[in-house]
Structure formats: C-alpha cells, structure tokens
Write a structure and sequence with these properties.
alpha/beta; seven-stranded mixed β-sheet; 15 helices; about 35% helix
Length: about 550
Amino acid sequence: MNRHFDHDVLIIGSGAAGLTLALSLAQTAKVAVLSKSAVNTGSTWFAQGGIAAVLDDDDSIEAHVADTLVAGSGLCHEDAVRFTVERSKSAINWLINQGVDFTREQNSDDYHLTQEGGHSHRRIIHSADATGKAVHSTLIEQVQQHPSIEIFEHHVALNLITQADAGSRKLRCTGAYALNRADDHVHVFQAKTVVLATGGASKVYLYTSNPDSASGDGIAMAWRAGCRIANMEFNQFHPTCLYHPKAKSFLMTEALRGEGAYLRLPDGTRFMPKFDERAELAPRDIVARAIDHEIKRLGCDCVYLDISHKSPEFLSEHFPTVKARCLEYGIDITRDPIPVVPAAHYTCGGVVVDSNGQTDLENLYAIGETSFTGLHGANRMASNSLLECIVYAQSAAEHIASRLTRVPAPNKSPNWDESRVTNSDEDVVISHNWDELRRFMWDYVGIVRTHKRLERATHRIKLLQKEIAEYYSNYKVSGDLIELRNLATVAELIIRSAMERKESRGLHYSLDHPTMSEVARDTILVPTNFAAQDIIVSA
C-alpha cells in the first residue's frame, strides 16, 4: 500500500549534516529525516580523526585558511574557506552544548588537540579515535527526543519530485519518492523544502573506507532533477586503509601519522621523505600516490604503518578503536606494523550550492559531502569535512527558516506507479553489474589516470547504463537496484569530469598531462534539463 507523508522540511540523509539541520530547524518546522538503513550507520558514525577548528590561542583563522588553500592545490574558493573557518569555533561550541564529549588533556579541563596532514598547527578536536561516533550518537539522541522530528529508517530515496511554479517561472522541489525496505513499497514524501544530506559516492570504487551507503544517491538525484555538478574527478583516496582479507572498509586514522607513525616498505625502510619534505604529514593525495607508486614498483600487496615506537599507554589512550580492531585481526599495534593500502575515501565534488546550501533547483538544498561548496578544492584537508557538515547545516537552517512561511504548500503528487513492472528472478544481473562497475572504476579511473583508460571507462559505463535502464524500466525497484542506478550516474559524472581536466592537480593525476595548469578552473557539468532556466507554465 503506497502512503503519502507531508512535512515542512524533508531531509534525505541521517549523518552529521542532516541531523544538525534537523535539530536547528525543529523549533519552527515539522521535519522528516529519511535514513537508508538504521540511523546509526553511515560515514559520520565511522569517522575517526576529528574536527578541524581554530581553538588554540597560538593558532589563527588566517593559518587555517592558508593551510586549506595549500591542500586544495589552488582550486579552493577562498570565500568558502573563510566562511567555514570563521564559523569553526561556534560549530564546536554548538556540538559541546549538544553533549559531545571531546577528549581533554590529562589532569586538565582543556581539550586535547592533535595535528594531521596538511595542518600547520594542532587544531583537531576529537573524541579519542572515534569522533564521528561520539558526534553522531549525541545528535541521534537529541533528534530522537525532539517531538517535531520524525525519523524514517530503512527508506531509500529514488527520485526527487518537482512542480512548476507559475509565479517564479521556475521548477521547485516538493518532495521525493522513497522505497520502504520493510514493506517493499514506494511512498511519497512531500515538503515545502527538501535537503540532500546523503553523503559521498566512494562506493563507486572497488576498495573504499566508506560504508555501503556511500552510493552517491543525492548527487545522482540532483543531476537527474537538473542541478549542476562540479569537480567529480577529485575523489580522495585515504592513504591508509587496513589491508587484511577479513577486514572491510576500516581505515587507519590520519591522526596516527599526526602523532608520529611512520610509513614503511616491507623491508622496514621509510619512503615518504623522498616524496615530500613533510614526509608522513604531507597532504593525503601526495601520500596516497606515493604508496600507490611503491606498491606498483615493488609488486607488493601493501605497505606498513608503524607506530610501535610509542608507549602502549599512549596508544591505548589515543587510539583505543584502532588498537582493538587490529587485535581482532592478530595485529598488535604496540609491536607490529599495520598493513595498509589506499582506498577511496571522500568525494570532493558534488552538487553546486551557495553559502546557504541552496542548489540550482528552487527549495532544494544540499549539505555535507553531497555538496560542492568550494571548500575542498582539488584535495580535502584532513578533518575539514565534519566541520563543513556542521557549518553549512546551520547556514542552510537559517536560510530555510527565514523563508519557510512564504513557501506555499506543494500540490499533491501522484503515487509511484508499480502497475507495469514485475518482480525480477534475475537479481544476479544487479550483483554482476555492481561488481563490474566498481572494478573498472578502480582500474581505469583510480589514483593514476590516462586518456586511454578513461576512454575504456567511458565505453563500459555507456553499456552498463543501457542495461541498468532496461532493468529499471521492467522490474520492481529494490534497494540494490536504486544504488546501482545512482552509482552508474555518478561514475559517468566522474569519468566525464576527468576527461575534461587536461592537467594534473590535487587528487586528479594524469600521466598524459603530468603538469599543473597556470589557471585553476572548476569542472562544472550542466544537465540538459538545467533547473535554473525559466519555464513556461501554460494556463
């Protein structure tokens, strides 16, 4: 049975960005939050390192801005960087007021700050090595207690709903269709304002640190609805993901290197000093490329991250999660080096938004990893991501609240039509296409790229999209099919963006164009149904 739900604000995604927005709006609006699975899953929950903010008297906004601009390889929008950094302290104070328990110095009320790659100061506030879990669990608790927020777990959004607005001569977003995994039906969720907070798209790659939910849903839905997408060629590969046959998507936090861990070859030799004067503290793209180079040069499976020279007490206090997880696989970090490989980690591009999170489509916002704000440039600096989630969620909340009473209620949308599709008895097609997509993206559109590899990827994605479209048209939708369709869209956007960039910059490294252009430009893809264009509404 198809159902119809109405709210003031519909938030698709239940990570740090989505829940911050929900709490910031709940005093003045009726809010719905859609979560693809249980609310305590997703990338926020697994974030280890911390949140970058100017909190120390010896640090400064200018230093944080400068570090971010350097890490972004000349492609950061300085106004977006400054906007974010200037709001960093208030964002942290807001989280503390919500009840987040950040780690303090021993025998002191001062918060412990650590340093990570690309940062010139200790400015990473954290909760041991499980900051994301501490932030997320606190926000979940607050959201679950608020009477104006309704959480819909195990709901997978399919498509955005748009309606023509004769007054403004624009299309506006008025909701979304979402599959309820529990009853296997697609329901209608309508609202005056819709917010995409669905996270990134790193699951498009075979090896990733991200949970299964990172399938680029918001980016794909926004593109189909007519929104511009920017800089999708810049996918950050975390340099140090645990390499073990039984380990899945577990990364070794950046803070390990910040606290003195060394990267070593299988024979124990350090190698980062020959790639960059900052050695292990170089930005992630440099470290990831160096590891990739050494693995391919030596033909080895992995390199090693070694922090065994630190005391067991220090490691137990600062890295309890890493220590416990490694012990599960027979690795004692107090004695043993940790086998690591690079893995797709963070999507630096996304849906083009302004400082309020507003997209090209009226009443549609995008925040967090789904969005392109200009903050990250060609390479995200460590621990700026959670900060971006909080800052832009609060900014979007202010903008939405200031105009919500003036937004007319949407017209009722039709139910999802399930009458002309059948249940599939060939789900193996989905799993095969899923695996093929992720493998050729890893092989052809990975850390090091060439024009010929990108051409091969272009050919394969076209064939795959044709198969997926046919399957989508004839069979009843499932969570796996929805994610596969979105991943294929995101893969196409990444490939197209990489083909357009004729240089090597930040996270995009091309053997055909190894130098960096003197002019830095964003790669902006404009859909044929561009949402910001005027429309003609007939009477």
